[in-house]
Design a protein that fits this description.
The structure is a single chain. Helices cover about 35% and strands about 20% of the residues. It has helices spanning about 10-20, 50-65, and strands at about 1-5, 25-30, 40-45. The relative contact order is 0.22.
């Protein structure tokens, strides 16, 4: 298995695992640190054969669902 991503919290990690599962991918969640049960980072692991497809789907999903408060369009250059 390969590390697909490290997600800041378990809720988001489980949601992304489910999104990828809908696409037929097999993702396993593991604690990234001892405090993961208290809201710490979680690592998404994926089968080697599914890694490239997983990366592409995750990148597409992240582009379509930017983090709250982020600005996906860069501001125009200052004059």
């Amino acid at each position: 298995m390969k590390t697909l991503a490290t997600i800041a919290n378990g809720l988001d990690a489980r949601m992304l695992r489910d999104v990828l599962a809908l696409e037929g991918l097999h993702v396993k969640l593991t604690a990234s640190s001892a405090d993961a049960r208290q809201g710490g980072a979680v690592t998404l692991l994926i089968e080697d054969a599914e890694f490239e497809r997983g990366q592409a789907l995750l990148a597409r999903w992240m582009a379509e669902h930017p983090a709250p408060g982020s600005d996906p369009v860069p501001p125009p250059p200052a004059e």
